Amino acid sequence: MTGNPRANDATERRLRLGMVGGGPGAFIGAVHRIAARLDDRFELVAAALSSDPARSRAAALDLHVAPERAYGSFTEMATAEAQRPDRIDAVSIVTPNHVHFQPAKAFLEAGIHVICDKPLTTTVEDALALAEIVRRSGLIFGLTHNYTGYPLVRQAREMVLAGELGRIRVVQVEYAQDWLTTPVEATGHKQAVWRTDPAQSGPAGSLGDCSCDLRAVREECCGRARWLQETRTTFGCGFMEKRRDSSGGRKIRTICVLRRMASRRLPSVAPGPRPRRRRSMPAASRPGIRRDT
Question: Which residue range(s) make up the domain with 214?
């Protein structure tokens, strides 16, 4: 990673890493910092860890970031780091979904490589705009689909590519979680509050947060799939549509039927007749399932 004009010595030292988000009460930021330490190729030297300037600076100092590089906002950080002779080589963005686009844009325009947590953005428009900014900048933009690096996922991929499982016709991927089966957000739980707020998580809610992982693992193992999509794409990484039910509440529907597995390295499966859609039990009547309106 030597795209920064002042980082040509990057192969001779640990990469200087900055972080946006991941302060007190956050979850994934600490995971990224642990991974960076385990990898031993990064050193956290700059941070803007909270939307509150005072909390942001205090949290950075707690992580032993130098006071002059403990920033109150990502805009302050991008501007200041771009002017330093020892500026960061890359920034890790670990904020809630709705705060991915603006920090990524700011650091790319400052000439700094970006590592961004998924999903890319909360709208297709922002995703396309960001892709164009990356293209113009010539910088590295990494979207973190960490499950693709798991040993068992890598083994599954090799088994598929070697033909050990035969002709792949259907892939089923599940990400089971139950921590939001009760209204945890009512207690002020930080992770639950933003994930259940469409203004912060995006129109797809937790589907945008978790479904990205499912799709990444599926494609890592089996290549890209062709889908029969009955919804319009309205999310930065997904295939879902926001509609309103008869009561005026929000309802997210993802209706994707796998028709054919296809990639350059895998044999395709001839498409069959369209399966009949089964009627499902209303969410409100299913045990243990919350219906948010």
Answer: 148-269+279-285
How far from each other are the two terminal CA atoms of the chain, in whole angstroms? 46
In angstroms, the CA 51 to CA 54 distance is: 9
Please indicate, yes or no, whether residues 22 and 115 belong to a single structural domain of this protein: yes
Return the number of other C-beta atoms located less than 10 Å from residue 159's C-beta: 12
Number of domains in the chain: 2
Residues 118, 174 within the same domain: no
Cα–Cα distance measured from residue 11 to residue 18, given in angstroms and rounded to the nearest whole number: 17
- Asked if residue 133 and residue 176 are part of one domain, the reply reads no
Evaluate the CA torsion angle 240, 241, 247, 248 in order and state its sign.
Answer: positive
pTM assigned to the model:
0.70
Residue 139 sits in the same domain as residue 161: no
Q: Which two tokens stand for residue 70?
A: 């403990």
- Could you give the C-alpha distances from 193 to 116, 155, 184, 201, in angstroms and in order? 21, 37, 8, 9
Q: pLDDT for 184-237, tens place per residue? A: 888 888 878 888 887 888 877 767 777 788 888 888 888 876 543 433 333 334
Q: Residue 23: how many CA atoms within 13 Å on its side-chain side?
A: 25
Tell me if 118 sits within 8 A of 143, measured CB to CB.
Answer: yes
